[in-house]
Design brief:
The chain has 220 residues and is an alpha/beta fold. The protein contains five helices and nine strands. The longest helix is centred in the middle third of the chain and has 49 residues.
Length: 220
């Protein structure tokens, strides 16, 4: 299943980190034509004054000048390797160290300096959509990992029902599936709760049985 690519950037905000202010050629003009506003954060003691906590990944885009070493202090998520918002590198001298610094910031696109208007849309398109695709991929991996962990609860619940009710594997799985659908929960979450209730001791210290919504009690 292919993801939908963003093609209209109207309403976006470009935060351009550079010492040249509005002298970045056609960048600001072209962004304005695309409906993207431009801001130039102040640089104090070698650091751009950016409200990192206030960055919105669905609106903000960081343009970072590679010639300014260490000017942007943002944390890239160690698991997803994603910055808090899309990053596009402004590249003059293509030194490996400068390109590496941009990659470490999570840059997903680059724009050559001096900026030419014809290259801005392509860079914006690639930078934002690569960021969105990576974020979506990471979410899918997280979901798969959670499901993988949850499958252990499913296996334990199936074995329990097979032992206590004399069901075969398919019958036990089908019963759990029906009950999870009735509870409007995923199979994994339902089985985790099922096993948690089954293992919970009562006031006498014995393990209690639990009753499925269908009325079948699993007693010990």
């Amino acid at each position: 299943m292919s993801s939908r690519l963003l093609q209209n950037f109207k309403g976006g905000r470009a935060i351009v980190v550079t010492r040249h202010g509005g002298c970045e050629g056609a960048l600001e003009t072209t962004l304005a034509k695309l409906g993207v506003s431009t801001e130039y954060p102040e640089i104090v003691d070698g650091r751009a004054q950016i409200d990192v906590a206030g960055l919105q990944p669905d609106r903000d885009i960081l343009f970072v000048d590679a010639d300014l070493e260490g000017v942007v202090a943002i944390e890239v998520d160690p698991a997803s390797r994603l910055p808090p918002a899309p990053v596009i590198g402004l590249v003059g001298v293509e030194a490996p160290s400068r390109l590496k610094a941009l990659v470490n910031l999570g840059a997903t696109s680059f724009l050559r300096k001096p900026v030419h208007g014809g290259a801005v849309y392509t860079s914006l398109f690639m930078g934002i959509n690569q960021f969105l695709l990576r974020a979506e991929m990471y979410e899918r991996l997280q979901d798969l990992e959670e499901r993988r962990r949850g499958r252990r609860a499913v296996i334990r619940a199936v074995i329990l029902l097979m032992r206590q009710n004399g069901l075969d594997e398919d019958g036990a799985y089908s019963l759990l599936r029906r009950e999870s659908m009735r509870a409007r929960q995923s199979m994994e979450i339902y089985c985790e709760e099922f096993m948690s209730k089954w293992a919970k001791p009562d006031t006498s210290g014995r393990t209690t049985g639990i009753t499925l919504r269908g009325g079948n009690k699993q007693a010990i």
